């Protein structure tokens, strides 16, 4: 085996193969020696993972087999009416997270309707963890059961229709089965869980997760659901007690969709959330979270708590220390990189995205995202950052990050977790989430990220969260709570599919699909899109067209688009892909190479109207060089200017 | 036909290799786990059809390969690294090198112990903490290339160590 094959295998193991290298490796693997070397290298890699990473073997197979046997031996009971038809795992995955947190008021709500029809099907199987039903540990249970997950750890349940639910420790849920025209209704009473729901051809497609605040309905995709704290003063057990009044102290529900689409019904309103959307709901509808800033005083990575030091003025404590609990889905970002609480150093300034319960943290952000060395990128006068010891009034440190139509004073930082209709400063662009499509003005290079109010560099904001076909390792931090994918406003109108646009390098072209790689400060990520006959393939030409007028009547020009030739389609080229939420590309535009940017340049000169230059001023271009600048010439220009 | 207990024994023996094969062609960790689970259940259910004249590991990997190809056929976005032909080539390579797999696994554990602390720390970051090379680079103060090179060197060292141990074992026998 030659050195190049070894190099390619190494690159494959490190997930850093480039477009053409994939094909090269494939070609080389035809050679039996190379294939054997590949087999040994991947064995070694898997061996290292198995030896060093305890969680590598996530499935306890012995247990799995035992459960299969249990399912085989468990009588289906007299209530069984029909067998589950064969199902096909759907391509799309969606994920939703539902959180119940302690609130401040009491309310009374009716229990579950006892007259509803419960159709028992095949039993649901416990794949891992300890699950109790009717006071005993169960390996399987039927529809209608109320289950409780042991405090000791999470549990995974395979539902009769092939879907999976991963419940957090100490969770409680009622499996209502096929009711109200839905194929499965799971009522989350307490705790949390992750749901991956399969599509079914023959059964009703809707899968519903019900909470005391509202319902999350999956619109034909796979999804994940998890519930956290809830404090019920009385137990709800619809199957045993039938109609029962239920008193609860709380009522907040956070829904986060990692990919796919769900519909949330709260207070008679319907909200559609798609991949990356996050929203907190109260009984009355959307609720707001806060961003809290401070210095880390203590961290307990095991318990998942972080304590921020209280404020002191002239040696006196004016604000006590505050301890927050990480949400199970919470992420820790250290200078833009995913980490965990153990990596957060004491004394560092952090920002916490706190859920409306005031004590659960969805995001811990240390330093700036995507930029080493901390410090946010912000424009002058955009709002003052407070330092420790600065005078501040009580409550000033908490900024609201959600809510409708919130007004802010000039100079205040705008942040939000979710919600619609926030006001923005001129030129900052508009974006709407929650199923109403996303709007964005053309020509704007800067985009705001929901939840943190930071600006991303081009390409950074375009990562799909929890998207299908993406290569991602667990804990990579690309799934960020309350961070909807940044999209440009195409489609999204009622009845039309919601589209998003991403830019990257075409790395692989396969049958009916292609992959693009996007590189940012946080590394590279790839996304695969499906193509069909309807997909429009265009290329940017050297000609420009005026698309609007900017400040002072300045023309805004963009390269004209033309139908692509076969020769334009090759790997390594930068493309802009417009795609639907389920990953189908509707348009691919092959981009022209932008000119190299000079130091200190804020804008992309690519789209600027050429301005006349005086003799001896500015950049000199060689004939035929077009837009490209020689290295160093731009710097000279900057210096001159 | 295999008794259930015997099946379990056989399965546990080839589990690591089965995971390694799936991991070698499926790029996403969750997808790997799904394929593995699906494969394990199929093996359990189809036990009656197992031909004991054939190596169990090869049978299991064959089923895994079919599951992967089936998933890819049903879902074009299923994260598979290679074309069906290449997957078959890799499958054959795994079958050809299966004999030494369990010895290799034992040797790897021994070789890992002999690595210098610095190398072990690097591997721990990569595999135990699941950090990406850029993250390792920023934490260790090395350049990204240096991290890639270091990882590559460690893997080569381990490979050499495994080979020498296997050769010594064979010589001893």
The rough form of chain A would be described as: globular
- The top-level CATH class of the largest domain in chain B is Mainly Alpha
* CATH fold assignment of the domain at 96-287 in chain A: Jelly Rolls
pLDDT < 50 stretches of chain A:
55-59, 71-120, 227-250, 368-495, 596-641
What is the correct CATH architecture of the domain at 96-287 in chain A?
Sandwich
How are helices and strands ordered from N to C of chain B?
Answer: HHHHHHHH
The count of helical stretches of chain A stands at: 6
Descriptors for this entry?
heterodimer, A: 641 residues, mainly beta, Jelly Rolls, OB fold (Dihydrolipoamide Acetyltransferase, E2P), nine-stranded mixed β-sheet, eight-stranded mixed β-sheet, 6 helices, 10% helix, 34% strand, globular, disordered C terminus, B: 173 residues, mainly alpha, Rna Polymerase Sigma Factor, Chain: A, Arc Repressor Mutant, subunit A, 2 domains, 8 helices, 77% helix, 0% strand
Structure description:
The complex is a heterodimer of chains A (about 650) and B (about 170). Chain A has about 650 residues and is mainly β. Helix content of chain A is about 10%, strand content about 35%. Among the domains of chain A are: about 50 residues, no CATH class; about 190 residues, Jelly Rolls, CATH 2.60.120.1440; about 80 residues, OB fold (Dihydrolipoamide Acetyltransferase, E2P). In chain A, the strands form six sheets. A nine-stranded mixed sheet of chain A has the order 4-3-6-9-10-12-13-15-16, with no helix packed on it. In chain A, strands 28, 29, 30, 31, 32, 33, 34 and 35 form an eight-stranded mixed sheet that branches. In chain A, helix 1 crosses helix 2. Chain A starts with a helix and ends with a helix. The C terminus of chain A is likely disordered. Chain B has two domains: about 90 residues, Rna Polymerase Sigma Factor, Chain: A; about 70 residues, Arc Repressor Mutant, subunit A. In chain B, about 75% of the residues lie in helices and about 0% in strands. Chain B contains eight helices and no strands. In chain B, helix 1 crosses helix 3, helix 1 packs across helix 4 and helix 7 packs across helix 8. The longest helix of chain B has 29 residues. The radius of gyration of chain B is 18 Å and the shape is globular.
